[in-house]
């Protein structure tokens, strides 16, 4: 591992440690004493109440803003201002606008509300029923908290690998997941780019560790802190391979850049979330090589705005699903008659 890569990894480890400590010590209570922050949060909470959305989760706001700013700082230290994501946010290009919109929805707790709404709450309800009636809670037998954290993280990460693999291999589910891959420029905020229906379907995967393992909420929150910061970093402008660590243990920025490459040789490669050894184990690993272009072929996204992209992805998903379920003559009548103006992705 080169000296620059060692510094990047050290900075990431230091940042994750500080983030966990600050969240654990509830530093947010100190921050809320600032008059401006109190006033700002009061306005947000009033909007939530007026919309009938219940209580606003300020903890999530602090977590998202703090983690994002921290990763922005790490990236800027190693890439400089000209190459960092923060500069591209100010340039406000179309692909970055979409990323920023998703980030704002996630940060202010609207993402999950929209996701549950457009799925009619079906996934949310079914996952709740499954978790309530089939809980095994194996981790109650593990007394060592550090060991419990490590086991839950590894199992959860394997779940993420399987989910990611399925969303890439299933042509129907890919219609949703390709929205994430439609980003033409990797930046920290692109981490949040993802379709609401994908998030809802993913609940059926996410509930598996909860059913099998159980464990306190703070354990999963700690996992969320670590994985979120890492995911933001691998979506950044950094291109390091992180040496031995990146080849055999942890997904590096270089490995994930290959995953987002438009080059056909890189399709369905480096699917791991945190650990790269899943890719080595299941033969989806691709070694570090230069990546010259990010995105998907004949990209129809990032042109007509955020709302258009959301509905385009939903249209492609439902069309593909209907074609798979209904007889061909029925599905053709349904889509040709009701949606005569097709998109460049209409060949199934």
Number of strands: 0
Name the shape in a single word.
Answer: globular
Structural class: mainly alpha
Which bin fits the share of residues in helices? 55-70%
Oligomer category: single chain
> Averaging pLDDT over every residue, what do you get?
82
What is the string of helix and strand elements?
HHHHHHHHHHHHHHHHH
Q: Strand share of the residues?
A: under 5%
Are there runs of 5+ residues with pLDDT below 50, and where?
A: 26-36, 337-348
Total separate domains: 1
Number of helices: 17
- Give the distance, in angstroms, between the N- and C-terminal Cα atoms: 44 Å
Q: Using only CA atoms, what is the Rg?
A: 21 Å
Biggest β-sheet, characterized?
none
Topology:
Blueprint: H1 3-24, H2 28-31, H3 35-50, H4 58-79, H5 85-91, H6 94-107, H7 111-118, H8 122-133, H9 145-169, H10 171-181, H11 196-213, H12 217-234, H13 243-248, H14 253-259, H15 277-281, H16 306-325, H17 328-338
Describe this structure in words.
- The protein has 348 residues and is mostly helical.
- It contains 17 helices and no strands.
- It is globular.
């Amino acid at each position: 591992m080169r000296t620059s890569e060692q510094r990047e990894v050290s900075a990431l480890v230091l940042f994750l440690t500080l983030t966990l400590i600050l969240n654990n010590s509830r530093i947010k209570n100190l921050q809320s004493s600032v008059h401006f922050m109190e006033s700002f949060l009061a306005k947000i909470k009033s909007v939530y109440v007026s919309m009938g959305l219940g209580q606003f989760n300020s903890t999530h706001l602090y977590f998202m803003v703090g983690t994002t700013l921290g990763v922005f700082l790490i990236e800027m230290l190693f890439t400089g201002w000209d190459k960092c994501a923060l500069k591209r946010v100010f340039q406000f290009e179309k692909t970055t606008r979409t990323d920023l919109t998703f980030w704002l929805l996630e940060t202010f707790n609207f993402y999950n509300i929209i996701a549950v709404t457009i799925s009619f709450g079906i996934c949310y309800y079914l996952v709740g029923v499954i978790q309530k009636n089939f809980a095994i809670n194996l981790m109650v037998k593990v007394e060592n908290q550090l060991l419990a954290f490590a086991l839950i993280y590894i199992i959860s990460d394997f779940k993420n690998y399987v989910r990611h693999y399925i969303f890439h291999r299933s042509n129907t589910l890919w219609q949703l997941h390709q929205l994430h891959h439609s980003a033409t420029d990797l930046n920290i905020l692109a981490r949040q780019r993802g379709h609401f229906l994908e998030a809802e379907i993913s609940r059926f995967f996410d509930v598996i560790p909860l059913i099998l393992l159980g464990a306190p909420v703070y354990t999963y929150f700690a996992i969320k802190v670590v994985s979120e910061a890492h995911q933001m970093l691998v979506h950044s402008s950094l291109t390091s391979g992180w040496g031995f660590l990146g080849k055999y243990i942890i997904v590096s920025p270089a490995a994930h850049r290959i995953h987002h490459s438009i080059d056909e040789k890189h399709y369905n490669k480096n699917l791991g979330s945190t650990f790269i050894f899943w890719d080595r184990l299941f033969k989806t690993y691709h070694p570090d090589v230069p990546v010259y272009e990010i995105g998907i072929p004949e990209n129809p996204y990032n042109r007509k705005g955020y709302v258009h992209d959301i509905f385009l992805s939903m249209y492609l998903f439902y069309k593909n699903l209907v074609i798979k379920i209904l007889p061909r003559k029925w599905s053709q009548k349904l889509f040709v008659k009701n949606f005569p103006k097709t998109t460049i992705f209409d060949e199934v």
